[in-house]
Amino acid sequence: MKEYWRSLEDLLPAEEAPQEKKSSVVLSEGADSSSNSRRDFLKYFGFSIASAAVLAGCERPVKKAIPYLIQPEEVKPGTANYYASTFYDGAEMVPILVKVRDGRPIKIEGNDLCQMTGGSASARVQASLLNLYDESRPAQPTLDGNPIRWEDVDAKLLETLSTWDAEKEFVILTPSIISPSTKQLIHDFKTKYPFVVHETFDAYSYSALKEACHKGFGSAVIPSFRFDKAKMVVGFNVDFLGTWLQPTAFGRQYASARKLTEGQREMMRHVQFEPIMSLTGSNADERIPMSASDEGYYLSSLYMAVAQRSGMMVAAVKGPDAIDKVADELVALRGQSLVVSGTNDVSIQSLVLEINHLLQNFGKTINVDKPINLYQGCDKKFDALLSRMESSAVGAVMFWETNPLYHAPLNGRTKEAIKKVPLRIGVQSQQTETALVCSYQLPAPHFLEKWDDMELVDGVYTITQPAIRPLFKTRAPQENLMAWAGFEGSYYDYIKLYWKDQIYNADIAKGKQFETFWKISLRDGIVVDKNKKGASLTYSNINISSSTNNYNSPNSSNDLELVLYQTVPVGDGTLANNPWLQELPEPVSRVCWDNYVSVSPAFAALRGWSQGDVVDVNGLEMPVLVQPGQARNTLAIAVGYGRSNAGRVASDLGKNVYPFVELKNGHRSYSLPKVEVVATGGTYELAATQSHHSMEGRELVRETTIAEFLANPASGNETHAKVEKLHTSLYHEHEYKGHHWGMSIDLNSCIGCNACVVACSAENNVPVVGRNEVRRSHEMHWLRLDRYYAGDTDNPGVVRQPVMCQHCDNAPCENVCPVAATNHSSEGINQMAYNRCIGTRYCNNNCPYKVRRFNWYDYTGADTIPNNRVDPAGMTLDLKRMVLNPDVTVRAKGVIEKCSMCIQRIQDKKLTAKKDGRQLADGEIKTACQQTCPADAITFGDMNDPQSKISKLLKDARQYGLLEELHTLPSVVYLSKVRNKDKNKTLS
Predict the structure, then answer these.
(1) Same domain, 683 and 739
(2) Residue 742 sits in the same domain as residue 865
(3) What is the pLDDT, as a whole number, of residue 70?
(4) Helix %, strand %, coil % of the chain (to 5)
């Protein structure tokens, strides 16, 4: 059996395993603590079953319902409405459906009419709903810190604009605008006021990719990438499954090219070169650690190798052995390969374009004629803007949902330049650092409170429509421009008129009048004009001789390098004030609520460091995380933390490393070639979840190679057949006369993005417990993604396994509950009667999967016992409670809770089918985790239906049950993982 391990401690003898470290220094504790212990609770009630009667007799608070006196036409109490909308946070764009109950949005789903995402959504998209109910959002306009009416704001700014000195610029600084109507409105505003200048600033920069494309194609665009059309992908320092450009769309493409179900016999091969272990790298078939300073050398060597194999006369350069092998594979797959890099360096991106050109990938796996409109910002233009501010050429700047003081401080230059601008206006939907230096602070609505439209790719239009009335005295930035320019009507009217004049045409209307077309567009949320085509671009070779000359040898320095990167949950920090995202474990490190400096095992051993030691990195004190697979002399720290003005959750959480970002050749560089690091002697306990559960040497994950799979589809899964032969039981076999619900999870598709975890939390009212409780193994997520390593600590393989309640037919938990709180339904669901549970936790102890969660404290405000509240994120505030799903019980303290297979969704669809007088269709019911999964890794359905997809997967040779040797007969099965590699020959 292949050996797997969770962390480096698993590899040590028991007597050498380090003891749990407690914090000797406080980096950012916050108010996440409780003064009440379990002993106090038991002392108060008495340690006996009798306490259950006391609890049951406690009078719950009376909550009176207020009836609708004038009921809105579209609102039916108890019935959900769905509104098509679009998520866009200045970085990622995803078409969505918003579930609204009684006038309040409670859940976000992907829009399944979108071919790009297939109805999926990322963790950040799912969690963005909670930002709507953030009590720390700006609530009303202010001038110099004092409240002011919108009418007075308009009067003052109209007077300012009417008497403007035309020699000064009035700058509107926005994120990348992908709204066609907003672009037109800004154009109209500039026509009204010629001194207005529109500049674009992205929180995280990929402007070097655009500049390289400008050199190669004559147009500064970001191409569309099609991972699903590639048979081989080679990535260099790029996390395209986690944070790069379009992770939701890329995750779906990637998984579809690697599926081995429904008779598929081919899968994409993925090789990754990177300095740190990223989500993408952890999914690669083969991964080679590479220092950031050597990326140019590796790419230059790859270019030379591909050019030689293409018959070009180039200098012979001896590159790494792995590069020669990769070049052979790529050349054999011309037009069916893809090479990508996430580094913000023009030389690097130019080399990547040249390699893809030699491999004939343009028009096949890379499409420049259909570029994406994201990340339009240019670092060189922002640098020029700062220069104009410094020279007092800018008289006013309006920060439209941008936060350059945090995202690009540039050694204090940004702050000093902004201070020289006399009039500063902050238009933000959240608290930001930049808003603090603005005289006018004008609150903007959350995207679920406003109208907008989007055009991610030419001809593909989506609509953002409000799902709730504004909760605060906010106004959309577009409404501000219309008011100050004297335009009549609302921004909704402006969008509708724009669509009528610019988008509506006979081809997409299909004979419908505009009003009908508009209503259908609002209903669907997506309109595709197939006849709209972008400019046809032709590639001309880029002069890369200087790049190949500069990168003709590896970096020989032993200096420590620092790499800055985005984590999957927190990203660039824009949504950092979100409890769901902060409590979401990072997919590789499995750490939440903290950022840290990760180092390689070899470097940690050299310095004598272990996990939790506090070190000083160029003046910044941070805890160490020892990360297997990281390049030896590389340190890595995540951006997005250390916010000074973000709100209750994110302010002063972690450390801000954006000050380390500097301009290099005109572009923001996210790596430092030389840093100093020393241990401080302090320790800090990270909130890491992976070590909370153990395999105990058992075979949980099963995997094989593609060659072995093609020879024998059951390869790697031989244990399944052996166990099936030995199965005998004293249990009576359950008989399911109706439905028998089951789930299949394809380990070959699952990329570990954690979107399912947030979706589950939102759907099932899973509480947020905070950093301190996570440290104590008290996290409450119903679904966890276990991450295991295999092989050498310097470059291990990584496998993941989503684990939730397995809904066993022979459920060990059901036998031991003294009050029958956990029971078996007639449809195979292991159910929990929360009001019956008295918290003995016998079921938890008897569960071999450790998927049951216990409410140690009152996390939700549903408890009747005083002084037991633990609420570090303010989730019990009235505003945040608006996010709760009324179809799911909010659990009080002292009960076990777990995955219910989204029983509320099952019952809803069963009732709908019954009212329609028809049978349930296969796939009609989707659990929350299945609905959002970008990789389409989860299948749910009726195992009693022989034609259902789940029934067919149960016959797949790769399927097995978790710990099936225990004969618990779980209703959740897994499909073994397959790697596209030769086990006898590796690149490294």
Answers:
(1) no
(2) yes
(3) 61
(4) 30, 20, 50
Q: What do you get for the CA distance between the two ends of the chain, in Å?
A: 23
At residue 557 the predicted structure's pLDDT band, cuts being 50, 70 and 90, is confident
Residue 444 within a domain: no
- Tokens (6 digits) for 919: 């049978």
Q: How many domains does the chain have?
A: 3
Mean pLDDT for 174-197 is 97
Q: Would you state the structure tokens that stand for residue 270, as one six-digit string?
A: 């993925």
Query: Phi/psi class of residue 465: alpha, beta or left (left: φ > 0; alpha: ψ in -120 to 50)?
Result: beta
- Read off the DSSP letter of residue 766: P
Q: How many CB atoms lie within 10 A of CB 469?
A: 8
- Residue 558 in this model has a pLDDT that exceeds 50: yes
**Residue 815 domain boundaries:** 703-979
Sign of the dihedral through C-alpha 139, 142, 147, 152 = negative
Q: Going by C-beta distance under 8 Å and a sequence separation of 6 or more, which residues neighbour residue 360?
A: 334, 335
Q: Say if 634 falls within a structural domain.
A: yes
What is the phi-psi region of residue 807: left when phi exceeds 0, alpha when psi lies from -120 to 50, beta otherwise?
Answer: left
What is the per-residue pLDDT for 781? 96
Alpha-carbon torsion, ordered 337, 340, 346, 347, to 10 deg: -60
- DSSP state for residue 191 in the 8-state scheme: H
Contact 926/905 with Cβ under 8 angstroms? Answer: yes
* Co-location of 676 and 755 in the same domain: no
Query: Is residue 667 domain-shared with residue 732, that is, in the same domain?
Result: no
pLDDT in the model for residue 45:
41
Note whether residue 397 is domain-resident: no
Residue 68: per-residue pLDDT: 54
Average pLDDT over residues 262-268: 90
Q: What span, in angstroms and rounded, lies between the C-alpha atoms of 179 and 451?
A: 11
Alpha-carbon span 680 to 566, nearest angstrom: 26
Backbone torsions φ then ψ of 578, nearest 5 degrees: -130, 110
477-485 and 180-192 helices, crossing angle to 10°: 30
Q: Which of 257, 259, 263 is nearest to 336 (CA)?
A: 257
Find how far residue 403's CA is from the centre of its chain: 20
Instruction: Indicate the residue among 336, 352, 372 that finishes a domain.
Output: 372
H or E element in which residue 273 lies: strand 269-274
Cα gap 822→556, rounded to integer Å? 62
Mark out the alpha helices in 138-285 (DSSP H runs): 150-162, 180-192, 207-217, 247-256, 279-283
Instruction: Report the alpha-carbon angle 702-708-713, nearest 5.
Output: 70
Residues 678 and 802: their CA atoms lie apart, in Å, by 38
Residue 347 maps to which CATH number? 3.40.228.10
Q: How many CB atoms lie within 10 A of CB 11?
A: 15
Asked if 951 and 829 sit in the same domain, the reply is yes
* Residue 24 pLDDT level (bands cut at 50, 70, 90): low
Which single residue is written with the structure tokens 């909704």? 492
Classify burial at 771, counting beta carbons within 10 Å of its beta carbon; exposed 0-12, middle 13-18, buried 19 or more: buried
Q: What is the CATH number of the domain that holds 897?
A: 3.30.70.20
CA distance 452 to 476: 9
Q: Is the pLDDT of residue 384 over 70?
A: yes
> CA 569, CA 732: separation in Å to the nearest integer?
45
* 440 in Cβ contact with 509 (< 8 Å): no
Q: In terms of domains, do 298 and 233 share one?
A: yes
**Predicted structure pTM score:** 0.92
Distance CA 940, CA 745 (A): 9
Are 400 and 478 spatial neighbours (Cβ–Cβ below 8 Å)?
no
SS3 683: strand
Does a structural domain hold residue 38? no
For residues 722 and 683, membership in a common domain is answered with no
- 620-626, strands of its sheet edge to edge: 671-672, 561-565, 634-638, 597-599, 620-626, 613-617, 677-683
Within this chain, do residues 900 and 765 fall inside the same structural domain, yes or no?
yes
Domain boundary pick from 340, 357, 372: 372
Residue 577's domain is classified under what CATH number? Answer: 2.40.40.20
Give the Cβ contact number of residue 800 at 10 Å: 22
